[in-house]
């Protein structure tokens, strides 16, 4: 598949992933309103599970790389970026790089939360 076609398929899949995230988070919040973001937790967990299945199919059964890109980067990328973070952490650990996986996991959380706090501070909202 050429790069333009792949890019268009990724965009189309992303256009489906984002509304799915919205719908799931909305439904959870609507039926279980709480301070705890259960909808986000459910999205992140289900997206991580789905990406694990996609990567597993790619590794074990030779799933076409373009299909993996459309589903993983397109749909699941728009559905949740946490799935990619989880997959990258697990893959480093299963490749025998436990220290790197741990550093990546902790570093990603600290960096992302810190960047969000910095963004709030920059606009004076914090």
Structural class: mainly alpha
Q: Give the number of DSSP strands.
A: 0
The span between the termini is 47 Å
Number of helices: 5
Tell me the series of helices and strands, N- to C-terminal. HHHHH
Low-confidence stretches: none
Overall geometry comes to globular
Strand coverage percent: under 5%
What does this structure look like?
The protein has 126 residues and is mainly α. The protein is 84% helix and 0% strand. It is built from 5 helices and no strands. It has helices spanning 3-31, 38-61, 65-79, 82-94, 98-122. The radius of gyration is 17 Å and the shape is globular. The chain starts with a helix and ends with a helix.
Please summarize what this structure is.
The chain contains 5 helices and no strands. By secondary structure, the protein is mostly helical. The radius of gyration is 17 Å and the shape is globular.
SSE order and pairing:
Layout: H1 3-31, H2 38-61, H3 65-79, H4 82-94, H5 98-122
Keywords:
mainly alpha; 5 helices; 126 residues
């Amino acid at each position: 598949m050429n790069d333009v076609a792949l890019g268009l398929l990724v965009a189309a899949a992303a256009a489906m992933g984002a509304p799915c995230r919205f719908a799931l988070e909305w439904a959870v919040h609507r039926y279980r309103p709480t301070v705890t973001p259960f909808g986000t937790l459910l999205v992140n967990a289900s997206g991580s599970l789905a990406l694990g299945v996609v990567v597993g199919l790619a590794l074990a059964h030779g799933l076409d790389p373009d299909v993996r890109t459309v589903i993983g980067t397109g749909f699941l990328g728009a559905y949740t970026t946490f799935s990619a973070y989880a997959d990258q952490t697990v893959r480093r650990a299963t490749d025998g790089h436990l220290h790197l996986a741990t550093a990546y996991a902790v570093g990603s959380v600290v960096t992302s939360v810190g960047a969000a706090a910095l963004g709030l501070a920059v606009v004076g909202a914090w």
